Amino acid sequence: MNGGSRRLRLLAIASILGLSSALGLAAAPAGAAATARHASTPIPTFARNAPRIAPDTTLGFLVNYNSGLCLGISGGHDNAPAVQWNCLTGHPDQQWHTGGTNSAGYYQIVNGDGECLGVSGGSTAAGARVVGWSCLGTGHPDQYWLYQGLITCATYYSPIFNYKSGLVLGVSGNSGAVGAAVVIWPYQGVCNNQFWGHTG
Questions:
Q1: Alpha-helix residue ranges (DSSP H) falling in 38-182
Q2: What is this structure's pTM?
Q3: Virtual torsion, Cα 53, 57, 58, 64, nearest 10 deg
Q4: 162: closest CA among 195, 124, 113?
Q5: Domain assignments of the chain as residue spans, ordered by start
Q6: Is the dihedral of CA 149, 72, 91, 143 positive or negative?
Q7: How far apart are CA 100 and CA 42, in angstroms?
Q8: Rounded to 5, what percent of the chain is helix, strand, coil?
């Protein structure tokens, strides 16, 4: 490449970088997109300061504010999907209590079948499926949650934050349908499918 061509190429690159900066598109290091995509959502101040439910507290049914349906595990153990369903007595998969805590004060949410609520594959991605899994301890941070039982949305409903991702428990697509998937999603701060009440 001759000197003139090299100068033209450098000027073109400088122009592109200048335009990117002007548009707020500064170059990012490799892997930055993945990091941003999985960045933890900070817990809002009102939630951090709210009274927390103690370990070994019976929650009973966890009822979704939007649908009025209950959180349950759809058959089987280890990686069985969490769904919302009609609230049915005599179904231990829908009966929840708080379990062991981690150093941050988050705790396991365990059903009557002894399954912990967790995130499939330990994912931190928005929309990742929530599942029931054997309780594996603090080495599995996706199995730890923070449910405060705030007095919001007209009665006792609260968001439930996941320790690993910072995302909250919600229903895919804000669905009101029986059998709709339960997922993690960025907290939206409004009374919708991300709020859960308990009957215990």
A1: 45-48
A2: 0.76
A3: 20
A4: 124
A5: 3-30, 46-198
A6: negative
A7: 22
A8: 20, 30, 50
Q: Which residues contact 200 (CB under 8 A, 6 or more apart)?
A: 57, 58, 59, 60, 61, 96, 97
d(CA 1, CA 124): 47
Tokens (6 digits) for 178 = 């029986």
pLDDT in tens, 19-59: 233 323 232 222 222 223 334 445 556 556 666 777 788 99
Token pair 């089987």: residue: 76
Look up residue 30 and give its two tokens.
Answer: 């490799």
- Show the DSSP H helices in 55-181 as ranges: none
CA distance 72 to 87: 9
CATH fold of 46-198 = Trefoil (Acidic Fibroblast Growth Factor, subunit A) (2.80.10)
What does the block give as tokens for 65? Answer: 């504010």
Q: How many residues does the chain have?
A: 200
